[in-house]
Specification:
Chain B: It comes from Aneurinibacillus danicus. Chain B: Pfam families: COX1. Chain B: Keywords: Electron transport, Membrane, Respiratory chain, Transmembrane, Transmembrane helix, Transport. The complex is a heterodimer. Chain A is built from six helices and no strands. Chain A is mostly helical. Chain A folds into two domains: 10-39; 43-166, Cytochrome Bc1 Complex, Chain D, domain 2. The longest helix of chain A has 24 residues, at 11-34. Chain A is elongated. Chain A starts with 10 loop residues before the first helix and ends in an 11-residue tail after the last helix. The radius of gyration of chain B is 22 Å and the shape is globular. Chain B has a single domain, classed as Cytochrome C Oxidase, Chain A (Up-down Bundle), CATH 1.20.210.10. Chain B is built from 17 helices and no strands. The longest helix of chain B has 36 residues, at 189-224. Chain B is an all-alpha fold. Chain B is 77% helix and 0% strand. The chains are: A mainly alpha, B mainly alpha. At the A-B interface, α1 of A face α1, α2, α3, α5 and α6 of B.
């Protein structure tokens, strides 16, 4: 095709492509892992270190199973669009989040500190039929969840609040 | 060597035809999502459908089917077809390639079922659990093995630029897939998010973009019947994309809970990506010299040049929205959805359509059944996409600014949701047009296989590289 092409060997491409790739991995995945803010918990993380037999832990599994993270985020940025949501998120907050639920789109509102906003009864009504609380809402109805799943999910949502020791932050 | 062996032909066609099925399935799920976005009780007919087709469960099924079903299988078919042509060497292990194709289809079916049942890792585009991931890694490594072996045993010793891109991509894909799908099991919190977004962005940049650019470099000289404009530019393009693209993961957490040095490290290379995208476009414009009029006569050329232009627009929009201030407004809004569909549908799916229309006559020995339907495919796709993109971008700007005015949760947030409605309906209409275009495509391909006019002997020998 092109008569000027001089590339006759595969090796430079294989070595070059691999090297450049792993430099990027080191810089954007490995190095941040060793940053001190990624290696420690804070008070907010400690209260989200749910034990495996707790309602909050089970509720988090329900949240994951139903894909809540595909419409709701869980991080507050230091920007105007997040100014009323609560304390700005820091890496330490997520130390025990496994898997993380940071999210990538706000079809629904951010839930980082949702535990400070509504009470259990509000959640019961809202999960059963979101439009009863917010006419025009496009959130699916979760009335098919078992009572156990519903109560566990609510326990999880109510736990999403700043640690008492951080009051005033 | 210009003719395919029977086994090569079967392998390529298996991947191509399977990918078309996944295109239709994946876009159907997308359409369901778009309708549920405005009408949340759509398909909520009985508890079974309510649960297994719920938005939160089928969203990852949509992305899986279009990314790993439609695009990746079409990509592998393209690699298996083009590499023998560029190397003048018949495909190594073509029967193994066919088995990989069959198993790849099995993977997609299993993925859709598992995701619909609510099993998910929550890592975007890596939601499938690890046993399925291992399965796919074996298939990808098998594909890479076949391709590298064919290139290693080549009869044409000079490596054309497309082959550099193919080799790079076949190394990058398995590693980035392992980082996003397997490494993420061993870490938690923000490090896990960073590993996940390393994968989420680089599967686009170091697989979908780089193989797609390789396809552009293959198709353009062939369809325009001009030599490639600049070999030097293509060298610069390859090495700059290989250097800069891999750093882009962090911009998905822009303004988020990551160190400031990492935020900047994600933006600077992102802006520098303008260099490789410019080399591709300069080569497109240079190679097309004197042949622009052919676009109106040749639908393949129409698709590939349009695709290249959308690739340029994506690579101008992307760096822009990764800057901290634009990101502060646009992040989490519909704008991002509009952006995400541009490289995948408008850029590289268009390049794939060009490849299919170009290669299918060689593979089937028959001309495409209807040129009119090819044009319908083009116009429905591009008009549908433009509606989809502009409604989501506008809605996104609206959401972003409304949120800065404090409408961040509760009743004020719902005000914004309700005001999105006309845009969301229009976006579904755009998606419907896009989908209809693909039904036309699939129908035309089906008719070509059974009723397309057989190629004459001269046409057969001139239609290959």
């Amino acid at each position: 095709m092109s008569g000027q092409s001089k590339e006759r060997f595969m090796k430079p491409f294989i070595i070059g492509a691999s090297l450049l790739f792993f430099i990027g991995v080191a810089a954007t995945v490995v190095l941040p892992f060793y940053d001190e803010v990624m290696q420690r918990e804070n008070a907010n993380a400690a209260i989200k270190n749910y034990s495996i037999d707790s309602p909050e832990y089970r509720g988090r599994q329900v949240y994951i199973r139903e894909g809540c993270h595909t419409c709701h985020t869980q991080f507050v940025r230091p920007v105007k669009a997040d100014s009323s949501l609560g304390p700005v998120s820091v890496p330490e907050d997520y130390y025990h989040d496994y898997p993380h639920l940071l999210g990538s789109v706000r079809t629904g509102s951010d839930l980082t500190w949702v535990g400070t906003r509504w009470n259990e009864q509000w959640h019961r009504v809202h999960l059963n039929n979101p439009r009863q609380v917010f006419p025009g809402s496009t959130m699916p109805s979760y009335n098919y969840l078992s009572d156990q799943d519903t109560e566990d999910l609510i326990a999880y949502l109510m736990s999403l609040k700043p640690a008492p020791s951080t009051e005033g932050r | 060597m210009t003719t395919l062996t029977q086994d090569e032909n079967k392998a390529v066609r298996l991947f191509f035809y399977s990918s078309i099925v996944w295109l239709l399935v994946g876009m159907s799920i997308g359409l369901i999502l778009a309708i549920k976005y405005v009408w949340p009780n759509f398909l909520v007919w009985g508890e079974f459908l309510q649960k297994y087709l719920s938005y939160g469960r089928i969203r990852p099924a949509h992305t899986h089917v279009v990314l790993l079903g439609w695009m990746s299988m079409a990509y592998v078919g393209g690699l298996l077809y083009i590499i023998p042509r560029l190397t003048r060497k018949s495909l190594e292990h073509p029967r193994l390639a066919r088995i990989i194709g069959i198993l790849w289809n099995v993977y997609i079916v299993l993925a859709v079922i598992i995701l619909s049942m609510g099993y998910t890792t929550t890592i975007e585009y890596a939601e499938t659990p690890w046993p399925l991931d291992l399965f796919l890694i074996v298939l990808v490594v098998g594909t890479a093995y076949i391709c590298f072996k064919t290139i290693a045993k080549r009869n044409e010793h000079q490596l054309y630029v497309s082959l550099w891109y193919f080799m790079g991509s076949l190394i990058w894909l398995p590693f980035l897939y392992i980082i996003g799908n397997l490494a993420t099991y061993f870490i938690s919190g923000v490090p896990q998010a960073l590993a996940g977004w390393f994968y989420g962005h680089n599967v686009i940049g170091l697989w979908f973009t780089t193989v797609g650019v390789g396809f552009i470099y293959y198709l353009l000289p062939l369809l325009s019947k001009n030599p490639l404009y600049s070999h030097k530019l293509s060298l610069i393009g390859f090495w700059t994309i290989a250097t800069f693209y891999v750093w882009n993961g962090p911009h998905h957490l822009q303004n988020g809970p990551i160190p400031a040095w990492l935020m900047k490290a994600g933006v600077v290379p992102s802006v520098l990506l303008i260099i490789p995208v410019w080399t591709v476009l300069a080569n497109v414009f240079g190679t097309m010299k004197g042949k622009w009029h052919v676009i109106s006569e040749n639908v393949s050329l129409k698709f590939v040049v349009t695709g290249a232009i959308f690739y340029l627009i994506t690579c101008l929009q992307g760096p822009f929205q990764s800057l901290m201030q634009p990101s502060a407004i646009l992040k989490f809004t519909n704008w991002i959805i509009g952006h995400a569909h541009m490289p995948l549908f408008a850029a590289f799916s268009f390049v794939l359509f060009a490849l299919f229309y170009h290669a299918l006559p060689t593979l089937t020995g028959r001309k495409i059944y209807s040129e009119a339907l090819m044009n319908w495919h083009f116009w429905l796709s591009i008009i549908g996409f433009l509606i989809f993109a502009f409604t989501t971008w506008t809605a996104g700007v609206m959401q972003g600014f409304a949120w800065t005015e404090g409408k961040q949760y509760g009743v004020p947030f719902l005000e914004v949701v309700v005001s999105l409605q006309p845009f969301s309906i229009a976006r579904a209409v755009g998606g419907l047009l896009m989908f209809t275009g693909q039904i036309v495509f699939a129908y035309n391909v089906r008719k070509s296989i059974t009723e397309g006019q057989p190629l004459s002997v001269e046409e057969k020998s001139s239609s290959t590289a």
